């Protein structure tokens, strides 16, 4: 029958201690490198995001300033209807005639924007106060 040797009383050699210290230093260095890499990544990501937002800022300001497409088309139609932009109003089937038909069929009051804004304010206030 073989007995297993008890290694409890074996002292660590300097070589074993040095190897353990080196392994721990390597582990710490790997963590530091990973953290540095992550920090560089975050810094570059931030730079790219700032650059992107600066580049599209002018486009977004312009897009907002144009207003909704429906408003732009309405201005175009009114310019055509008032003769600022020449249109042959006798021709049928044109975009102008289509829009004119809709405007005649569904007229808006002169202060339709204010009426919509007031209705929206009432709705928001009602929701906020939970009035019944």
Please describe the structure with a list of short key phrases separated by commas or semicolons.
132 residues; mainly alpha; 4 helices; 2 domains
| Protein structure class | mainly alpha
Radius of gyration, in Å, reads 38 Å
Average pLDDT figure? 83
Task: Specify the helix fraction band.
Answer: over 70%
Instruction: Tell me the count of domains.
Output: 2
- How far the N terminus sits from the C terminus, by CA atoms, comes to 92 Å
Shape: elongated
Low-confidence stretches: none
β-strand percent reads under 5%
Order of helices and strands: HHHH
What about the largest sheet? Answer: none
Tally of strands: 0
Count the DSSP helices. Answer: 4
List the helices and strands and how they pair.
Blueprint: H1 14-66, H2 69-81, H3 95-105, H4 112-129
Walk me through this protein's architecture.
The structure is a single chain. The chain starts with 13 loop residues before the first helix and ends with a helix. It is elongated. Helix content is 72%, strand content 0%. It folds into 2 domains: 11-66; 68-132, no CATH class. It is mostly helical.
